[in-house]
Write a structure and sequence with these properties.
The structure holds two protein chains of two kinds. Chain A contains no helices and twelve strands. In chain A, the strands form three sheets. In chain A, strands 2, 5, 6, 10, 11 and 12 form a six-stranded mixed β-sheet that branches. In chain A, a hairpin with a 6-residue loop joins strand 5 and strand 6. Chain A is globular and about 45 Å long. In chain B, about 0% of the residues lie in helices and about 50% in strands. In chain B, strands 2, 4, 5, 6, 9, 10 and 11 form a seven-stranded mixed β-sheet that branches. A four-stranded antiparallel β-sheet of chain B has the order 1-3-8-7, with no helix packed on it. The chains are: A mainly beta, B mainly beta.
């Protein structure tokens, strides 16, 4: 079974600064997807960024980028120019692509609470 | 377009009762999955439905069940409620089951808060 580990329960960053959230995962599969979701106080899960394991290029979405190290099974999220609205819980998630035709199950990490200070 | 809609948003039930939660996916989405979120266990996958058929199931007791209707709306039911069932139940929908295409983003609703007393 796959596991996702987020070792930072809480992180804090000053507005306009950069912060990196860590995520490691364990899998024996070679084809999979990785995601970062944001969960604000409203509790709705919002997709921040996704990475296909077969792509070596790191995904970027505006101020958000990832550092995907497949051999190390590491998938960190970098938030640049942090804004107050970035304050939320951030979850790293894994989805298998081996049986992509039959399932869309996400395996989540335990989350990192990000605080943004003035 | 409207997002994933879950009802009710908040509810309180007594131990031993049963509860039904509803989820309306984004228009056109046929894949619906359910997750339970608790402080102790985090986010755990319950089950997934596509074309009215359960395609995948998490490690939950048989008290947890679900179904999907022809219009892709889904319901989940928990019978004989226990205190430990208190949680946020999240529904997620996507266009196509397991599609690799970037457009197949999985969208979540705001969840249904269940408190069992």
């Amino acid at each position: 079974a796959q596991t996702v580990t987020q070792s930072q329960p809480e992180m804090s960053v000053q507005e306009a600064e950069t912060v990196t959230l860590s995520c490691t995962y364990d899998t024996s599969e070679s084809d999979y997807y990785l995601f970062w979701y944001k969960q604000p106080p409203s509790r709705q899960m919002i997709l921040v960024i996704r990475q296909e394991a077969y792509k070596q290029q790191n995904a970027t979405e505006n101020r958000f980028s990832v550092n995907f190290q497949k051999a190390a099974k590491s998938f960190s999220l970098k938030i640049s120019d942090s804004q107050l609205g970035d304050a939320a819980m951030y979850f790293c998630a894994y989805r298998s692509a081996v049986n992509a035709g039959t399932a869309s199950k996400l395996t989540f990490g335990t989350g990192t609470r990000l605080q943004v200070t003035l | 377009k409207a997002g994933v809609t879950q009802t009710p948003r908040y509810l309180i039930k007594t131990r031993g009762q049963q509860v039904t939660l509803s989820c309306s996916p984004i228009s056109g989405h046929r894949s619906v999955s359910w997750y339970q979120q608790t402080p102790g266990q985090g986010l755990q996958f319950l089950f997934e439905y596509f074309s009215e058929t359960q395609r995948n199931k998490g490690n939950f007791p048989g008290r947890f069940s679900g179904r999907q209707f022809s219009n892709s709306r889904s319901e989940m039911n928990v019978s004989t409620l226990e205190l430990g069932d208190s949680a946020l139940y999240l529904c997620a929908s996507s266009f196509r089951l397991g599609s690799h295409r970037p457009g197949n983003t999985i969208y979540f609703g705001e969840g249904s808060w269940l408190t069992v007393v």
